[in-house]
Amino acid sequence: MSTTLETTRINLRASAEAKALIEQAAALMGTTVSGFMLQNAYDAARKVVIEHDTIRLSQSAFQSFVSTCEQTPTPNAALQSLMARR
Fold this sequence. Notes:
This protein is mostly helical and 86 residues long. It contains four helices and no strands.
């Protein structure tokens, strides 16, 4: 998480029960409600983004992918025509 001095505000509404539980959890962790909520929301957001941006492959699928990437394709007629215009 960035430690710059610039901050922006995030507003949200919560039920009284949720607020009380968050306040209790923050106190148990020795932090403020804002600090507790920000750290936990930030951690959850990073997890979501990482899961979204990560591709998982089996070892055989990865080897197939690497093999395909390393093969030099044969230029087709359209590519040859395009390169001839250069």
